[in-house]
Amino acid sequence: MSKISKFFKGGGSAASKGRGGPSPQEALARLRETEEMLSKKQEYLETRIERELAIARQHGTKNKRAALQALKRKKRYEKQLTQIDGTLSTIEFQREALENSHTNTEVLKNMGYAAQAMRRVHENMDLNKIDDLMQDITEQQDVAQEISDAISNRAAFGDEFDE
């Protein structure tokens, strides 16, 4: 079965059909395949256009009928080429939107994991315990400062004796 018929007849994997649609990776792969196929068709049409132009030049004024037919075919090919260009632009836009959506989904999942981890970390913390701990730390810092001040003051052993 060709890629085109698979694409239009829904020839996807059974696993993707079972869960309600293709995964983002499957959809991206299909869009890339379609882009590739359309690009090849573009190249083919471009060569056909060049060939028809060569035929028209070859017949020129000698065989106007053949030259006109070649130019008409060239015009048809150009119209098809324009349609393919539009389709490729649409597919490219769709692919980029899908890639962005997939990225956003992954970012959101990771943010959810981070929120759960933070919740687990904060689970064992109580605001009253934290407040008590902060008060204890402040008291111990004050005691340490008093001890430091006491040690750093000059000892005046001989100045305090009364005669």
TrEMBL record:
GO terms for biological process: late endosome to vacuole transport via multivesicular body sorting pathway; protein transport; vesicle budding from membrane. InterPro entries: Snf7_fam (IPR005024). GO terms for cellular component: cytoplasmic side of plasma membrane; cytosol; ESCRT III complex; late endosome membrane; multivesicular body. It comes from the Eukaryota. The keyword Coiled coil applies. It is a peripheral membrane protein. Residues 1-25 are annotated as: Disordered. Signal peptide: none annotated. Keywords: Coiled coil, Cytoplasm, Endosome, Membrane, Protein transport, Transport. Residues 9-21 have a biased composition (Gly residues). It is found in: Cytoplasm, Cytosol; Late endosome membrane. Belongs to the SNF7 family. This is CHM4C protein.
